[in-house]
Hints:
The protein is built from ten helices and twelve strands. It is α/β, with parallel strands linked by helices. It has three domains: 1-95, Arc Repressor Mutant, subunit A (Orthogonal Bundle), CATH 1.10.10.10; 96-167 and 263-294, 3-Layer(aba) Sandwich (D-Maltodextrin-Binding Protein, domain 2), CATH 3.40.190; 172-259. Strands 4-3-5-12-6 form a five-stranded mixed beta sheet, with helices on both faces. It has a three-stranded antiparallel beta sheet with strand order 10-7-11, with helices on both faces. The protein is elongated. The mean pLDDT is 89.
Amino acid sequence: MFTRLFGESGLSLDRLRALVEVGAHGSIVGAADGDPVRQSQYSRQIKELEDFFRVPLVERHGKGLRLTPTGRELARISRFFLLGLSNFQRGCLGEGQTYRIGANRTVIEALLVPALAGMGAEMRLVQVRVEAVDADDVERRLHDLSLDFGVVRRADLSRPLQTAGLVAWHARLWVPARLCRTAAEAADRWRAGELPVAWPGAELAWEGSGGRGSPALECESFLEARAALATGELAAPLPGFLPPGQEAGACLEVALSAACEGEYRLAWNPRLLRLNPHAAGWRDALIRRLTAALA
């Protein structure tokens, strides 16, 4: 069946692993972690794969190299194969499972870490690695199986990725009481653009929020906005699952528009479940824990 595939030298697990690592890091330099010896090794191994398949697998990109579309496809196939072997080895040795979850920092701190800490029996013989990952990278890494699960904001991910809802949220504007005497005054100043606000632009669009002008402080995440709120000098929008900390003191609440809402969903690649059937049960336990904690 595989006579032609193994009829000549040049194909090996080490060479395929090198291609997978270069694809995961985006470059030979990144995969080798700056080690010139490993860079030379990876370059040689990928060249041997190119000679074997008779197609270019890497191309010039700036001062470095990146995988070609053909190289990315071979890396995807190789990763699938190597993950299957790795899971088989762990099963033979009676070792536990390792799951990698990607999400933004707000989700990690406010949702994932508390949920994982409370899973109890489901965490026995399981190691979890939580990684702070940008939203776009979560989808890409689920496709190439360098993440097992990810938390995303939308359901319409590209096939074959699947999702399950975790929590729908609506943000409210929290205003330190020292800035306004009443909630009505805070709402009036918000609509007039007179309220100093810290706005998490990577998580919530300013347009459509109801605010006028520009925020006093543009930050990335809800966590950063909450830290600004804690100073007592700036108002900030926060979702329901992330209320102000005690250090914020007394705060007033202002309703925001329907544009200031969203949903978090757990996403995965069904190919993972074919490689590792145990992942389905652990996924379901994680969804139950997250939704119960947030209910």
